[in-house]
Amino acid sequence: MTIAIIAVAAAAVLAALATGYAWGRSRRPRKDDVRDPVGQGRPQRLEPLTPEKKAERDEWKGRLFNGFHENAIAKGKAMARSDDEPAYFRLSILRNIVAWYEAETAVDPAHRDVDVLIAGDLSLPGGTTESNVQEIKALREAGLTVGLYHHPAYKFDVARPVNPKISHFIESDGGVVAVGRHDSVRARLAILRFPPSFHRLADTLPDVRSDRSVLVVNQSPYGYYGEDGPRRKVWDVAKVRENLRRWPGEVDWYSVGPAITEVMSRHHAEDLGGVELAEEPWYDIVAGDFPPHRGSDRDGVIVVGRHARDDKRKWPSAEDLRLCYPDAPDFRIEVLGGAEAAREKLGGLPDNWNVHGFGEKDVDDFLAGIDVMVYFIGKDAVEAFGRAPMEAMARGIPVVTEPRFADLFGDGALYCEPAAVERTVRDLVSDETRLRRQSESGRRTVRERFSAESYLNRVGRLLPD
User: Fold this and answer.
1) Which listed residue, of 9, 133, 365, 452, carries a Cα 20 to 30 Å from 300's Cα?
2) Helices and strands, counts by H and E, the chain
3) Which GO terms describe its molecular function (predicted)?
């Protein structure tokens, strides 16, 4: 924020209010009129905002109040001056600029000293937030203090608040503190997660001084990598690289798993501009131990589970869907996360599917009721990690998935093509010895690769002293 920007914003608001006052003295308005907020001297009727104009105002307001004020103020002034905009819309724009200015002048910057700073978009509803939650738990159990800085991704909903799973720590744990845009922080280690957060930096950033900083690349730059090349760009590698050099400075890049390592080396080596990914992956983790999985009360029915965000990239083709999740009388398919994309691909869902929307059911309760997790995704999609299968393995639930995950999960899962899923599942659940052996193999893999202990060992190697 600069003094010039504040002065311009304040002058615009004061000029508008002064004009409205002059107009009011020259004519007694009717109760359904509103003073023209931008100086044209004409009364306008106060019409309620349409849903579209309300959404436009809220998006603009979100960027104004959540770190991206420079362009937001310029755009707000232009909208407030436009005769094409409704009067109430223009007035609300000016009110929000005044509110922003008052909030900025009331800020009292703080200084934070922490062991580990975690920065990125802390509002996300899915795996990125769960990864942050598990790392915070592990760090706190190890006695390390944690700072949390929310830097929303500009392309997403910047007005979305910090996820309650994360704000809970700030509210209940004195060893976890929030870092604001105007604050300064001294950290032994800074962990930046989710590169789209840094595709465009906020206009005001905290002063971060850290002994070591890392970026966890847990999102591929493009949504798809098919035979015809990458499609649906999510973030720009070169832009993020340059932004991080400006803030917070020198950063080591880590991939979250083999899939990201492969994508970055094959498609984005030139964009990295000399930055090398660390040899050791920054695996997601599950903090805590879980009792052995008991499975469902089958009564002759095999319960196959799938847990994923409802996105067409997360689902295989219609042909593979039918093979991976058989419409057989002794199979029941339990889905957590929604299945509208699958419904669209299949033209309707089979009768043996039972679907729970995203967040409708506790993950532990969901996993406790299945026998096997079957996890397949679209052929051109890149699954950065695969948190859902890992969470199942941590609880001793056998996982059947596709060979692309073999480097990540090793012998912790079973691998096959879609055509072999039904036979693989039947053979597994019909052999109690094999079922028990695979359950323990999954739990062992989690302990070795994806546990709080393995994570703290990694962090310990990066912390000074």
Assistant:
1) 365
2) 16, 16
3) glycosyltransferase activity
